[in-house]
Amino acid sequence: MSSLMKLVQTETRLFVRDPTSLIVGLVLPTLILVGLGAVPMLREPSPDMDGIRFIDYFMPSLIVMSVGVVGLTNLPSIMATYRERGILRRMRTTPMHPGNLLLAQLTVNLGAALAATVLVVATGRIVYGVPLPEHALGFTAAFILGIAAVFSIGMLVAALAPTTRAATGIASMLFMAVMFFGGVYLPRFMLPDAIARIGEYVPPGVQTLLDSWNGEAPAAAQLLAMGATAVVAGVLAARMFKWE
What we know:
The chain has helices at 3-17, 19-37, 54-57, 59-84, 87-91, 98-128, 136-160, 164-181, 193-199, 206-213, 220-240, and strands spanning 45-46, 52-53. It is an all-alpha fold and 244 residues long.
């Protein structure tokens, strides 16, 4: 077994053993879905949303939460903790390059974000009959670019934050902004037009997810914005990341 795979297994065990990471990172969006589904009126077609049920409309926002909670809260704080405790510095004295730890963390957290997304979508489908994305190709493209943008921003926070506390504070502010623009705190149809418009370009791009969910092709400009964010933030994170 390669050293990278051993690291991935170790980081996966650490993730699973941490109740906060496991509950907040994997289960929280599904718990919110179940809570919303317990309200009868949210399972009925709404004239304010062209006959769509609120629980169907809100699914892309729960996907935003699934991605954001892992990429913007878990990933930056863990990498900052490893740096602050000297774990990365000590790894540089071993044959294993500390970059492998970074790659292992990305792998584990990406897997967690995917698992959280699958769990919330599957629960919505099985329990409440929430339809699956009607434009599968568009949804796939939007999800991949959106998650890449969020994780790149998370790594940029990990690269710049000097301490775990700083990483947690910065990541928390970014997470709250993403949740606000993503329609988690307040449904997007209730937001002012200007705010909703800005939210279309805020990673992971809830509007692209919503459009593809309803059978429309995501707007190219919004997909390009997600891709550009992923590239710019990723390059900056790679250049500015400090191992000590």
